[in-house]
Model the fold of this input.
Amino acid sequence: MTSEPAAEPVGTPKHLVREESLGYQVNHLARLLERALRVRIEEYGVVPGQFAPLLALYEQDGLTQRELCDRVQIEQPTMANTLRRMERDGLVRRVPDPRDGRQARVMLTERAREIQNSLIDVAHDVNHRAIQGLDASELAVLMRAITLVIKNVESVERP
Done:
């Protein structure tokens, strides 16, 4: 004879222990990293929402808005607003695509190039501080685990 677990009374509130929730912990970490980055990059006139598109453009200048969206996983309307702000702040300019006049290429400005090394140094420093106390093998395991979790969540998002 097997016994089934006792059913919870109707209306009993469920609880989620934040420190045991992957979603909560990752979100909390992301907020902390963003805050640390924000404090360090504001002197360059850059905000965290501009950082991912800048990194993508530092890797390959001249991407289209769609290509930027795909690379940094940001929705089109959000990217459009971000690029407007980046243009206003003198970080990028949009130029017509010579092969397809309906599209524009997002190009880094001289100002964005001048602060590139400083921004990259800040990112390395914030990351370095975040992983203090982890040895190389622990960091490798952490990065593999994060990559796997990202792939798992991305596969859930797709039908």
About this structure: Residues 136-157 form the longest helix (22 residues). The chain is about 60% helix and 10% strand. The helical segments are 22-41, 48-59, 65-72, 76-88, 110-130, 136-157.
